[in-house]
C-alpha cells in the first residue's frame, strides 16, 4: 500500500486545509492510483486528518445556520436607543418605520410600583409578606400564617374555634376582652419579666446575689381584633399582631373536653374500642400539652355520644322512626307499649316495649311458608339496658330468614307472651296451629308457648344444651355420645346410642 506523501511546494503540513475537504475529488492525486485502491486512500486520508489537524468535523451532525429576518427582529428594538459600547441603530430603519409607530406600547409609569412609600402600597406589601410567611408550630410542622388582616368569617363561633386551635398549637393562653354582637378582641395572657438590663426571664425582682434588681412585667404583644358592620355581614379581621414574646406553657385553657372531642371524633368512629391511656398519650404527643386521664376519658365519652348519638334524643325520636319505617316499607307492623308515669296528672308516658315486623319480610315468609320458627333473646348495652327478642325462619336454601324483633324490658314470661301475640296476629297463627318452635329452653319462654300454642311442637337448640352440659361434663367422650343422640333419625337408632352399644367408625 502506498503511503501518502505531500506535494512539492507544500513542505508545511499545517498549510494543507484537510478539514475543508469533503471528498476525494478535490485532492490532486493520480487517477490511476485512485482507481486501484479507493478504500485504502479514503482510510489513509481520514487518519492523516485526525493526526495532523487540530479541528475535527462531525459530518453526521452538521447543523445548518438558520436565516434570521432582521426586519422582524428590529420591530422589538428601539433603534434610537444608545447602548454602552454599541452604536445607534437609527440608521438601519427601513421605509416601513413610520407605519410601526402606531403600535400600542405599555407605559410602565402608569403602574404603581411596590417600592413607593404610599400608604396603600405599604399595606399591600405588608399583607403579601404576611401571607407568604411560614412558621413552625409546637409539633415542628410548617404552617401558613393562621390569620391576616382582611380575613373574613361567616360566624363568630368559627373565628373563636380557630383562635382556640391557634392557642393550642402555639401553647399560649388567649382570652377575649371584647365579645359582643359586633366586636371580638383576643389577646395573649402571657407576660415577660424584664430586669434593669432589659433582659426577659423568670426573675422575681427581689435580689440577685445580694443586689436589688428592678424588674417590670410586660404583657405579650399578640392581639387580634375582628368586627362586622351589621348582623348579616361577615366578620373581618381589622387588627392583628402575630408576634408572641411570652414563654410557652403546657396548661392551656382552650384545651377543654369539648374541644378535644371534636378533634378525635373521626378516630373514635373508626376505632370505638381505643383505650383511654393510648388516647391520652396520643393527644399529649400531638399538641404538646398536659392532658389528664380523666379529661381524655370525658373527651372520648363525648365523642362517642356524638358519633353514636344521644340515647335520650334517640328515644325522643322514636315515633318519627316508626313513621319512616311504615313509609318506606309497605305493610310494616309496629306496636309501641308504654306505661303511665308515677304521677297520674302527667301527660307523658314511659316507653316499655316496641314490636317491629317489616312488611316485605312478612310477605316473603307467607309466600314460602315453612312451619318452623326460631326464638331467642339477647342483652342490650348502654345507659338503658334491656332485651332484644327475635323470631327467624328458614328460607328455601336452609338459611336464616329474619322475620320480626322486639325491644322489651327483660326476658320473662310477660314479655315473651306479648311478643308471640303480636307475631301470631301478623302470621295468622292460632291455638291449633302445627308450627314447630325451637329455642334455648329459656324459663320465661316455655310457659308462654304452652299457653299460646298448645298444639305446637317445641324443640330445643342442641348447641345451647351442649354449652350447659359442658359445665358439668368437660370430657370429649360425652360430646360424642351427645351428638350421636341428637343426629339419630329413628327411635331404634336413638335407643342404641343411649345404651352405648354403637361403635365409632374411623
TrEMBL record:
InterPro entries: MULE_transposase_dom. Residues 1-57, 85-122 are annotated as: Disordered. Residues 96-113 have a biased composition (Acidic residues). Residues 373-468 form the MULE transposase domain. Residues 43-57 have a biased composition (Basic and acidic residues). It comes from the Eukaryota. This is MULE transposase domain-containing protein. It comes from Lactuca saligna.
